[in-house]
Amino acid sequence: MLTKEQIAFYHENGYLRIEQVYDPAELRAMSEELDYIIQNFANWGAAWRGPWRKVVMNEEEDSKATLVAIHEMQHYAAAWTRALMNQRLADSLGQLLDSECVEMHHMTLHAKPPDAGAPFPMHQDLPFYPHVDGRYLDTLVHVDDADEVSGCIKFLPGTHKLGKLTHILGPETSPHLPTDQFRLEDAVSVPAKAGDVVVFSIWTVHGSNVNHSGKWRRIVRIGYRDPHNLQERGQAMGRPGIIVKGVRPKVEGQQINVYGNWTG
Ligand SMILES: O=C(O)CCC(=O)C(=O)O
Q: Quick check: CB of 13 below 6 Å from ligand 1?
């Protein structure tokens, strides 16, 4: 269980690193099965696009920038089904959400290959899967160590308190915040070890730099919510998620139909 200090740190800063959630044997299986998914199913052309790239990368970095991504690895590998169900993580999320029930919402791989891994501009995760309120936590499961050189996650502490921010959107760019107002250089780095999980609010502003190390930096984001917090649109819309803690509450305006999807 999280301590009072850890919970207070999360509420103040909008993020929290939880050390060694996965033991070495679990992590080995997650790592091996992720490599299989990367080689056989993942999209190697997933680097985020847009004019912001010229601000955060030089020409050489821009030409090489590569991101390997795929959604819902629990559909490919049992180690990842077990990973999303981790009970220590679920209980910690229940504490942070102050909720008896926690629902898994989605899973996404962000793998930065050696020496070429693409950066992320500063953004909230809100535009990708907007929800009515802030009772939504993203978790970054670290499959490899991540540090400054390999492009670890960076946060602007306390920005979750700003609530929903307006992002730059469009067909030619990935959603992001204005680069002159929300700067990667101002963000706090949160290095983490393989097996650690970094939790943050759907409203916390974050980003990361190019991977300049000679090693992979593989991170898997798993999103979880209080089931009372209804989704408005976007990724993983239209399907109920797996309950990882407690039992689903009855929520007005939300019902599962005979096909196992939301009605209406
Ligand atoms: O993997 C990273 O470095 C950044 C990930 C990110 O921005 C996200 O998961 O929303």
A: no
Interatomic CA distance for residues 46 and 68, integer angstroms: 6
Question: Is there a domain that residue 172 lies in?
Answer: yes
Instruction: Choose one of 56, 125, 206, 213 to mutate for the ligand 1 pocket test, by most ligand atoms within 8 angstroms of C-beta.
Output: 206
What pTM did the predictor assign?
0.97
pLDDT for residue 234 is more than 80: yes
Cα dist. 68→35, 75, 105, 195, 214 in Å?
11, 17, 21, 20, 16
* Residue 114: both structure tokens together: 């050696």
In the reported structure, the alpha carbon of residue 253 is separated from the centroid of ligand 1 by a whole-number distance in angstroms of 31
Give residue-wise pLDDT tens across range 169-228. 999 999 999 999 999 999 999 999 999 999 999 999 999 999 999 999 999 999 999 999
We report the CATH number of the domain holding residue 101 as 2.60.120.620
Q: What distance in Å separates the CA atoms of residue 167 and residue 187, rounded to the nearest whole number?
A: 18
Query: How many angstroms is it from 238 CA to the middle of ligand 1?
Result: 23
Establish if 89 belongs to a structural domain. Answer: yes
Check if 153 has its Cβ closer than 6 Å to any atom of ligand 1.
Answer: yes
In-domain check, residue 261:
no
227 belongs to a structural domain: yes
In tens, the pLDDT along 17-44 reads 999 999 999 999 999 999 999 999 999 9
Helices 87-97 and 4-13, packing angle to 10 deg: 60
Please tell me if the CB atom of residue 218 comes closer than 6 angstroms to any atom of ligand 1: no
**What pLDDT, on a 0 to 100 scale, did the predictor assign at position 225?**
98
Please check the confidence at residue 263 and state whether its pLDDT lies above 90: no
